[in-house]
Amino acid sequence: MSKRDYYEILGVDRNSSKDDIKKAYRKLALKYHPDRNPDNKDAEAKFKEASEAAEILLDENKKSRYDQFGHAGVDGQSGFGQGGFGQGGDFGDLGDIFGDIFGDILGGGRRGGGRRRHRGTPGNDLQMTLDVTFEEAAFGAEKNISLTRFVECVTCHGSGAKSGTQAATCDMCQGMGEVRRQQGFFTVATTCPKCQGSGQMITDPCGTCSGQGRKKKKVDLAVKVPVGIDTNQRLKLSGEGDSGTQGAPNGDLYVVINVLNHSIFERDGFNLHCMVPISFSQAALGDEIEVPTLNGKVTVTIPEGTQSGKKMRLKGKGIQRLGAYGVGDLILTIHVETPTKVTGEQREIFKRLAELESNDKSHPMSRGFFDKVKDLFH
Question: What is the pTM of this model?
Answer without folding.
Answer: 0.60
